[in-house]
Amino acid sequence: MTRSVLVTGARGKTGREVIRQLACEPDVEVRAGSSRPYGAETDPAARSIRFDWLEVETWDSAVADVDAIYLMRPDLENADDLVGSLVQRAPDAQVVLLSEQSAEKDTGDSWIRRVEQEVVANAGRWTILRPSWFHQDLTDARHFLKSIQRDRVLRMPSGGAPIAWVDTRDIATVAVKALLAPDIHHGRHYTITGPQGVTLQEVAELLSSATGRTIEAIDQPIEEALNGLTPWITDVLDSLYRRVRDGDFGEPSDIVETVGGAQPRSLEAFIHEHRSEWLEGSR
Fold first, then answer.
1. CATH number belonging to the domain at 3-131+167-193+251-264, selected among 3.40.50.2300, 3.40.50.720, 3.40.50.410, 1.10.760.10
2. Model-level pTM?
3. Which end of the chain is more exposed for a tag (fewer CB within 10 A), N or C?
4. pLDDT value, residue 107
5. Tens digits of per-residue pLDDT, 159-176?
């Protein structure tokens, strides 16, 4: 029997990889949901469909008769309402939500927790993924890439605490297991990390060694990182950075191995693999 899976955020760092891995599974129909649909750019086995969090009229066809949903929460202030409304349209589907490490330590009425609670309250079956910071954030122009390339700086409010950086390919491996075996993974919260915690200074040293350029680690004050942001995103990021500084992103878990059946990729291996990207556009 064919299992139908909707992947929201199909162009995202985890969504692309979930689609790629699902396409390798037998008897799986993959729906690549995006506000900017594409043909077979991700994988010819995935059917590209229009799904836009801001256009409710795109939702029903996206979730019609799906068996599972990989749900990348929208970066919107009312994400909890949107997520709850979407999940209610597919009450029998297994929902695998991408959240973040240590979300359970946030306050119960926080944005992150409200999104998780909407999934738990409305999904027939669910799994919550709580990954650490992505390796791929280091090669993302919206995050760290440009400052590493142009300024040779890695800037973040870490307080010197380690982070157990994780590869999106490993997150996807766990996600696919949960999407395809809901009876096993229903009701689980999975903290997904790399093999060890690494400080910002250690990340800069790995980047320096790989690129042959001195990359400086700058531990920003939280207030500086939040300067000029809207009140909502300020609250979200303030909580995130304080949990980082408290060491809540530094504790490794064994979920990639025990659930995904693979050894997690190390940050050092990722940096070696992608070292040319930080040299492009550098000065």
1. 3.40.50.720
2. 0.95
3. N
4. 79
5. 999 999 999 999 999 999
